[in-house]
Here is the input.
Amino acid sequence: MELNTKKDFERLLLGILEPLKDKYTPGCAFLELGGAYAWYENISAKMESFARPLWGLVPYWAGGGKASEFRRIYANGIASGTDPDGSEYWGVCHDGDQRFVEMAALAYGLLLTPERLWDPLNDREKDNFAKWLYSINGHDMPMNNWRFFRILVNTALKKLGREYSAEMIEKDFGSVESFYLGNGWYRDGVKGQKDYYIAFAIHFYSLIYAAVMKNEDPVRAKLFKERAAEFAKEYIYWFSDTGAAVPYGRSLTYRFAQLSFWSACVLAEVYPFPISVMKGIIVRGLSYWFEDNDIFDNGHILTVGYRYGQQNMAENYNAPGSPYWGLKVFAFMALPSEHEFWTAKAAPMPPLEDIKKLEKADMIAARYRGAATLYPAGTLDDFSCGHTRYKYLKFAYSSVFGFSVPKSSLEFLESAPDSTLSFEIDRRIFTRIRNYGFTLSDNKIITKWSPFIGIDVETEIVPTEYGHIRKHTVTSDYDCIAYDAGFAVSCADEDMCERKQEAHSASVKNRFSKCSVQSDTGEGMVCDTVPNTCLMYSKASIPAIKYEIKKGKSTFKTYIYEC
Here is the structure.
């Protein structure tokens, strides 16, 4: 895939958007994509599908793009959606409404290209639109990155000379400030997760604010840019040399939104690395997603999933149009045609440390021959949105192997056992369900946790030049079985997969990767997982070590090798 000039990126963006054109409703206020719906109202899901393409269209228009058919669709859609007497009215919002999320995309358009979303409206339509947006100020919303939705909406209304709430802007900025941890890192609200929402939500929105408010609010804009530059020096460790990022945490169906932080940096003139390096991250990342992945259905509509369509990994807030949030990556399209980004040559990754402690993220990052691996302390165990524990509490997450989510806990092969220590009790599989604390140092993580009442575990993870070592101390009230598993290795039919299990070791190898595990005491085994549990590969096998756990205290080590 050739990605270098502005035209190259325009072709990519429009290729994603063109298949949507015939799926808008007659009044254009909704986009009908079909498929499984989310926890919120279906009207909100269809409005979400309408709004999310704007994350790509807005910077495209702001940078001089035409796409006149979409201009007509969105002007008509906004007029229809905000007309309380119309048949396609988006409706009256309530506390915690999903439509607040989508208001951010509309505000993005009003801030970057009002001539496309505001100027075509007549006076009555403008009044309806402004009133509908302003309603965000009359409701409660989650104490997390959502606070930026209200900031962006009020900022857009202010720029348009419409009624807005200065009080809410300051209140919500106060909330955002309370999330700040240092080193450029935030926590995403009261639950405290440190995942991609820090990059593609909190930093992304703060950089858009900095770009459009640099003259009116220079102090805050400068602060946001400084924090983004600091964050970039650690966030870069989540990306491999080949363009793949580490799948970790929730909302991975947004896929290439992982790259949107770098795009927003360029738009806001934040350069923690040379612009050629940042362009390289974006180019390799987009090439990774669009050259060798099965992320569209046969109508070229983005699916819910990661590297292929997979509802099993979805969160309860994933609706058919949700994946189009990933179009935030195209923020750089707003750059003028003479900007140096378009002529810069995509450069490789800069020199990075082999092992890097990301203190505020509660994890260690490691690099193995250009691949990226994250070792999180695993602090999130009480946040429910869909397989949450498997998205945060595994021992390691890799840009090569990804991770798995379970089909059930009734059988080991259905339990998504990769990168976990699993316990079999009464024919059920149990993994980490609660945390008791952790210690993070420069080269190891010690966590205390429990998979089941009556079993307590202390695990020490030590990254090495070949992978990592796990040392477990288990205190159990029962005799049981434990399985210490490595990564899930792709075993699709064409991958020429080789499985090997011996007395104290096991390995799985294919044409492009290998994982092996070894122990002094346990029994080597290979688990062929049920299909569609690994986010990266629809068929996978996992090498593991099986241990006999006796009542009392047991200590054992497992060596994990990544190749």
Observations:
- The chain has two domains: 22-342, 355-562.
